[in-house]
Amino acid sequence: MTDVYHTHKRRYLQGAILAIPLLLYFILKSFPTTDIKNWPVSWDTHLIEFYVGSFSGLVSLVTALFAGSTLGDKSHPRTMFMTIAFVNISVMLLISSIATPQIVISSTYTDAFYWSLRFAYPLGGVFFFLAHIPWSEAFSQKLVHFRRYFWLAGFFLLTGYALVSIITPTVFTSLHFNFPLLENMLAIMAMTLFVIAAWYSWRLDWDAHPYINKRIAIVLLLLAEAQFFQAFGQLGGYNWLLYHPVTLSAFMIAVSAILSTYESEQNIQFSRYFATIGIVLIGALALIFGEFTARWLNFEVQRTYIIPMVLIQGALSFLVLFFIVMYLNRLITEHTEALNKEQRLRSELTQLIVHDLKSPLSVITSGMSLLSKGNLGELSATQRRLLTNLEKSGKHIIDLIDDLLDVERLEANQLELQTSHVNITKLLQECVSDNQIVASTHNQKLTLAHPTSLPSIRADNRLMHRVFNNLISNALKFTPDAGQIEIHILTMNDHLVIQVADSGPGVPVKDRELVFEKFAQVKGTERRGAGLGLTFCKMVIEAHGGTLTAQESHFGGALFEIIIPLPQQPGPGVFSSTDISESELKWES
Questions:
Q1: What pLDDT is attached to residue 486?
Q2: C-alpha distances in angstroms, 151 versus 159, 226, 579?
């Protein structure tokens, strides 16, 4: 249920991220007196343009640098075109920022500033669109084969554009007069390409981490909004400047996706993680420090010298820290590899021992079973009780060995699920029947309640049977004589919910996560065991895409709740006393 809650929460957040800028835009359009009416009116508007544009270009460049290690298969055209898209937007934003009027250079470059903004999003949109086209495998290989030519062509084109912007900025002046519709055509084209690419990113399933595609879709929609504000906002007004925070938000979401990928890897790449976040933070601090220095010196022209110097100093500081992190990362990697080797050897030894234990134990329990049934001669009542207890203890040891082996396999992702359509009600009825003797022996009341009809789920029948048996036997073990154990099945929000509640001592709040850890022992409570059964249960349920949590039951004891997603939309999951099946199972001595 927690996963469902977080999924809905993320959707609301994503909707808010996309809706709030549009809402602000239309408010500013509706009340023009609250907006800046003129670009030349406020010099601070130019300053905002310079710094936010520079930082956005830097973050876009960082995204381009590390996108290849995040998007999955590097031999796929998607990785190549996505990286080129981020590089194009970055370069255009940086050229535009440098050419911002009255900040670093003279107003002669105003047209270069303006058209660099106009070209940034369409260029990025083209390559984002190319990245999301489902190319055939043969054509994909050809595109990747010629990737060096793409990069060379892009390098010469961007370099040529930058030189033209610096040497002959007046070239851009004629574009306004000769091609009056060019600006709107480019904007409409860019927005269309961004939206189509976002749709593909949301729908298609690439090799990258699942959440990467969703975040890339949000990034593309934000860039489409930024292009809309830039094209249809009033130049220099707040409704026009909205494109900056929206663009920056898009790139920060892309960076967060990269960082999340590094965090989710088994071996965290500390050097890449530090490089990603370090460049962004040091770049931001350098720009802020440069502005404070320029204001302190009280010479606007000093920005031409101060900001590059501060950026160089920041880069040198970053390099020093990066080498330190690289050294520490190497030490951590060596220690991690040694630890993994030790754990692997320990795991192999454990499996060897338990396998060697299981064979003779099976022979012993089989022999005791033959004796207790009288197949080898008549036994007295005392001998039969002793053999029954010995057989029970032997089976318990075998169950512990099976749990240990399966936990090891689950941890190593070597236990494959043999899924089929499973009737959970029938399966739980069998498990309750298996435990009826134990319940009746201790005068315990064991009940199963469920709706009259439940949809089947795809699951591993054998493993789920063991999970339910473990939870029920665990509840019986810790419930006092004449106590109660209730099992409820219900549906809720497209999920199947199974609750096993008992009237035992319960699990303290602080230990409700600890009880699922391997070989964990909860101190100061009667609920103690070998520490494998609940670990096995949790890992099996999670392998089925569900969750297992410990809570407090209405008896004051423990309640273990399983939540598993249903394969299709079920009917209303209402659970009440009127729709409980009369197949409730109760045993009392």
A1: 93
A2: 12, 26, 67
Q: Which residues pair with 552 in a beta bridge?
A: 558
Amino acid symbol at 320 = V
Q: What is the pTM of this model?
A: 0.55
- Was domain 41-265 assigned CATH 1.20.1070? yes
pLDDT at position 458 is: 87
Compute the chain's Rg from CA coordinates. Answer: 33
Domain residue spans in the chain?
41-265, 347-411, 419-565
Q: 64-112: per-residue pLDDT in tens?
A: 877 766 655 555 778 888 888 888 888 888 888 877 776 666 656 677 7
Query: Two tokens at 485?
Result: 């154990």
- In the chain, the amino acid numbered 296 is W
User: Residue 581 has what pLDDT?
Assistant: 36
Residue 57 pLDDT exceeds 90: no
Sign for the CA dihedral angle at 574, 575, 578, 582 comes to positive
From the CB of residue 202, how many other CB atoms can be counted at a distance below 10 Å?
Answer: 15
The pair phi, psi for residue 67, each rounded to 5°, is -65, -35
- CA 110 to CA 114: how far, in whole Å? 6
| Class of the CATH domain delimited by 419-565 | alpha beta
Nearest CA-CA partner of 512 in 544, 477, 476, 559: 559
pLDDT band at 374; cut points 50, 70, 90:
low
Q: Is the pLDDT of residue 560 over 90?
A: yes
Main-chain phi, psi angles of 105, to 5 degrees: -125, 175
CA triple 472-583-552, angle to 5 deg: 35
Question: Is a pLDDT exceeding 80 seen at residue 431?
Answer: yes
